[in-house]
Structure formats: C-alpha cells, structure tokens
Amino acid sequence: VQLVESGGGSVQAGGSLRLSCEASGVTFSTKSLAWLRQAPGKELEFVALISQYNIPAYGDSVKGRFTISRDNTKNTVFLQMNSLKREDTAVYYCFLDEVRGQGTQVTVSS
Fold it and tell me: Please, are residues 25 and 4 in contact by the beta-carbon 8 Å criterion?
C-alpha cells in the first residue's frame, strides 16, 4: 500500500486549501481513510475519517470547517479545508490501516 498526499501550502487565515491523498496497492473502495495532523511540538491529532460506506467523522476542532470526501474511481480521498486558522498549521497525514503517507505541510498565517 502506498499513499501520496498533495495540496498543502501556505495560506492566510480565513482562506481555503484542498488536500488530496491517492492510494495504490489496495482495494480502495473497501477501506476507511483518515486524515491526522501534527503541529510542531504536539502529538498527532485526529482530523477526519471517511468510511468505506462514505460516512464522515470529524475532530471537534475542525467540525463545520473541513469536509472529507472520496472518489473511488480515482482511489483518492480529499480534505477540503475552509476558514483556516493559524492553529490549523501542521503536517497533514493520510492514513489507511497502519499505513501513513509522507505528509503535506499546511501553513496558515495571520
């Protein structure tokens, strides 16, 4: 299994970014996928998950601002991030089972 994230970058507070995570080597449609993030000096934090049945779940800190979705035809999961805050600054990782992608940096400035 391989996961490749993309879409990170720098944005001002209040802005938006869309992260993508493409999976290979797995029957994608049968799997749940999650996004977690890690800010400097902090532990890994749950952001969002989408089940194989397309049911989403969100961490409290991102509810109402972030949306997770998937495209099984492209083996890809997305994280639409709106109304970004400085505290959203972190490396964002895609997880499938025990496998983690390389991460993509999101930096939000005021």
Answer: no
97: which residues sit within 8 A by CB, 6+ positions away? 1, 31
The 10 Å CB-count burial string (b at 16+, else e) for 55-94 is eeebeeebeeebbbebeeeebbbbbebeebeeebbbbbbb
The two beta strands, 99-100 and 45-50, are unpaired
Compute the half-sphere exposure of residue 49: CA atoms within 13 Å on the CB side of its CA. Answer: 13
Q: Which two tokens stand for residue 100?
A: 């983690």
Encoded amino acid at 42, one letter: K
Residue 54 CA, distance from chain mean position: 15
pLDDT digits (tens, 9 = 90+) for 51-101: 999 999 999 999 999 999 999 999 999 999 999 999 999 999 999 999 999
Helix, strand, or coil (residue 82): coil
